[in-house]
Amino acid sequence: MARKxxxxxxxxxxxxxxxxxxxxxxxxxxxxxxxAGTDGEDEAWGxxxxxxxxxxxxxxxxxxxxxxxxxxxxxAAVGAATAxxxxxxxxxxxxxxxxxxxxxxxxAAKFRYMFGGKAETPVVIRTMYGAGFRAAxxxxxxLYPVFTHIPGLKVVMPATPYDAKGLLIQAIRxxxxxxxxxxxxxxxxxxxVPEEPYTIPFGEASxxxxxxxxxxxxxxxxxxxxxxAADNLAKQGIKCEVIDLRTTSPxxxxxxxxxxxxTGRLVVVDEAHPxxxxxxxxxxxxxxxxxxxxxxxxxxxxxxxxxxxxSDVLEDLYIPNAAKIEAAVRLVMGKKN
Amino acid sequence: MxxxxxxxxxxxxxxSMKEGKVASWLMQEGTSISPGNEVLExxxxxxxxxxxxxxxxxxxxxxxxxxxxxxxxxLLGVIAGANDTSEAIDAFVAEFQKNYVPPADDDxxxxxxxxxxxxxxxxxxxxxxxxxxxxLILIHGFGxxxxxxxxxxxxxxxxxxxxxxxxPGHGQSSKQVGNANFGELTQVVYDVMDALSVPKAHxxxxxxxxxxxxxxxxxxxxxxxxxxxxxxxxxxxxxxGGYIDGFIEATGxxxxxxxxxxxxxxxxxxxxxxINDILAYKRLDGVDAALRALRDKIFPGGKQxxxxxxxxxxxxxxxxxxxxxxxxIVPAKQAQGLPASVKVHVLKGAGHMPQMExxxxxNKLIEAQxx
Amino acid sequence: MQLxxxxxxxxxxxxxxxxxxxxxxxxxxxxxxxxxxxxLYAGEEASxxxxxxxxxxxxxIASTHRGHGxxxxxxxxxxxxxxxxxxxxxxxxxxxxxxxxxxxxxxxMLGANGIVGGGPPLICGAGLAAKVLKTGGVAIAFVGDGxxxxxxxxxxxxxxxxxxxxxxxxxxxxxxxxxxSSKYSVSCDDFTDRAAAYSMPGIAVDGHxxxxxxxAAGEAIKRARSGGGPSLIEVKLNRYYGHFEGDAQTYxxxxxxxxxxxxxxxxxxxxxxVEGAKLxxxxxxxxxxxxVMAQIENAVKKAKAAPKPTAADxxxxxxxxx
Lengths: 337, 371, 322
What we know:
- The complex is a heterotrimer.
- Chain A is of the alpha/beta class.
- Chain A is built from twelve helices and 14 strands.
- Chain A has two domains: 2-194, Rossmann fold, CATH 3.40.50.970; 206-332, Rossmann fold.
- In chain A, the strands form three sheets. In chain A, strands 3-2-4-5-7-6-12 form a seven-stranded mixed beta sheet, sandwiched between helices. In chain A, strands 9-11-10-13-14 form a five-stranded mixed beta sheet, sandwiched between helices. Chain A has a two-stranded antiparallel ribbon with strand order 1-8.
- Chain A starts with a strand and ends in a 5-residue tail after the last helix.
- Chain B is of the alpha/beta class.
- Helices cover 27% and strands 23% of the residues of chain B.
- Chain B contains ten helices and 16 strands.
- Chain B has helices spanning 86-99, 153-156, 182-195, 208-219, 241-249, 253-261, 272-282, 287-298, 354-357, 359-370, and strands at 6-9, 19-25, 32-33, 38-43, 48-52, 57-62, 69-71, 75-80, 115-119, 122-129, 136-139, 162-165, 201-206, 224-230, 319-324, 342-347.
- In chain B, helix 5 (241-249) packs antiparallel against helix 6.
- The two termini of chain B are 33 Å apart.
- By secondary structure, chain C is α/β, with parallel strands linked by helices.
- Chain C has one domain: Thiamin diphosphate (ThDP)-binding fold, Pyr/PP domains (Rossmann fold), CATH 3.40.50.
- In chain C, the strands form two sheets. In chain C, strands 1-2-3-7-6 form a five-stranded parallel beta sheet, with helices on both faces.
- In chain C, helix 1 runs antiparallel to helix 11 (266-276), helix 1 packs across helix 12 (282-305) and helix 4 (78-85) crosses helix 12.
- The radius of gyration of chain C is 19 Å and the shape is globular.
- The mean pLDDT of chain C is 96.
- Chains A and C meet through helix 3 and helix 11 of A and strand 4, strand 5, helix 7 and helix 13 of C.
């Protein structure tokens, strides 16, 4: 039965159902239970924002609090994956990739290829990204373009509770390392989610609005900004097709190209900084493979090339929004703003 | 205000419809209308269909213009007597628009709600609408669910209780299909009737659901008041095995679309939303195994394993068969040569899903048989 | 180590300023006016003060996400700190950093840090600079018991030792890395056991006792300044509030904080000691209390009234903008 639950509950349910189904699935991370070794509650936090709450009570030692040692425990998750477990490690904020990146990009990502196809590394690294929490420069970044750049990693960016559950179950069942990126602002978003376990294949974009005038390719939290823009524009007679990539690696090129071939116009919306991000990547794809379909230059709407600022006014200015997307769409439609 | 002035409003098809787009008016202002006439075409994100008038009279006013998207319940047009004055109609429209409140976006309580009952260890989702009379039970086909009846159930529920449900392995019911044969599924129909305290019901079954309905009537004739068999299985060995295999094997939008298009005479009815809904269903744990098990037992090797055709004559309740002429899944020629007691209706311009593609006609035929 | 009366007054003022700053933030945060994550240092004041009392303009420190105490200790402007925490343009970082990234390089404060274990490598560099440039300065990395397990910390201890850098690694062990006990997460009973592996002295000190911290800090800093190399110091202390504001702290024992406040509060212990030994009178200390209250009140008032940054500020302070 489908019912409404939050993005955060959807992630928790996916973890719980997969842990029930497969005893090889374990969870590790900083305070994923919370309270290890203390005199108080032994599941005091259930993750810094409570996403894994309740799992320690259900699964006991299969939910492991780690010391604050990302290199060690992310590396251990990778190692455990090569040795028969299916670990889900929580890298609390994606910004902390810096203290464990070697384990991800030089180790996990390369095993399959480097060992001649003989290695499988079924590890999932769950991590929070994105601005909007006034969490400043070291806790608000996107950084998924960095992971997308690296062959051997799969990068997943759910925008809805439904996608969060299905993509996380897929990630856990997948035999390759998956970076599962959760936007912290989306945790409270509600949506219809089936109670049963289900999967969503990687590399399949979701078309969340159909339209003939402009293609908007986007991902993560920006999907909601883009649909808001598309709904506003629809009232003015401009019909946008909004494509949620859902995974940036692999990426569903066909859905992007098909849509641009129909609309002839492309706006790409990405919360990440403007250089070498998903927007530039999609723009390059379309310029390369669908140039003749384009009726207007491609426009990108992204965060600016500055670290995420702390002050609320600055952070609000930083984050792309519906108004900026609408302006970009009107521009490619040849309309004055 | 004249009692003969009636509103024609945006219908709510299925559980999730919030708005519809007026695709085209099939009648012009001034046309006389009988109840059940198709007045205009409406597109939703799931499907397009014709809106029938439940009233008789004259289409006096077209309010919603072609291309306009309006919420459920919004005024589309006005049906009135030929003698009502245009001032009275103006006043009616003004009054309607003043009082009309579009359903709130997050209004979960609007419209009918499905429920779940536990039936012998399986959760079965069902939708009950209407009240009174001998209930009508709607049984969907292979890979379908209760939403296959979205154009039928509400309309048919005007006069009686109508219950649709998801068979095991389908929709939002449990995915365990047990032996995966007709006996197993027939027993589920029987158990659902018991669980919902329905001693006797009219059965309408589509495709595989048609064969289940026949099997139920043969096994428990005392509990079946009539049979409406829509593009039914069970009347011949032929079936489009390629469709069934394709439906099972497809994993993405691009590979399932051509298979789904075979279901309809008008392939454009296969919307992106319909594909998404089917993919979401197929991706639930247990569905793939359930569908394969059902195929292996009921349609092995691209043939129907059980043909009940010869037994239809032994049944004494009213039976009708409704087929789309262009059915690409179960050939309409299987409607030929049935016992004389069986009424046969072959509908032009419809494929394997006449209850969706020719909803008004199918509803009318069901009403006619149920009385 | 002898402390003059002026030193004692300065130390008390420093501790009291930190305490009031944090207690007030605790209240103000609850009103919802302060954005983001705030981690309070209340309860740990004797540590920052005990070390910073020895430092001067040549010296550098790197702090943690719980950085307000170290910032005040190293001389950061309290008004500008408060404005920063409120995200105002007049803030120490123009509103761009916030609580977790308060820094004032002119004061030798290399920043609070949002990355656990971010500071120690930086402090190796600051120590190296002091050594190469022969400034006589020392560099102190304050870390928590969480960061004590980070690879960056382990690598920095080794590097500082092999290069004989004028560095201190001060582990403020408040018992909890977020919600996880250091008894669970740190492999050794005594943090100082790890010092031997890096061939440096390891000293444990009671962080509720300003005088104990001051003395241990003095020894280690003297050693560093005179070319004797780095030290590892574990300061055993407690935090009065959660990991961050909003943390319900259900992992802590019932009345744990209440008991610590009642028996081990560093300000109370300080007053008892100096008043008991007739080094200072209560009236002198009370006056500091009143001054500090007024100072913090004023800082909050100014921070609240200060203007926020503007759109033009978004794209400044980067080398290139797109």
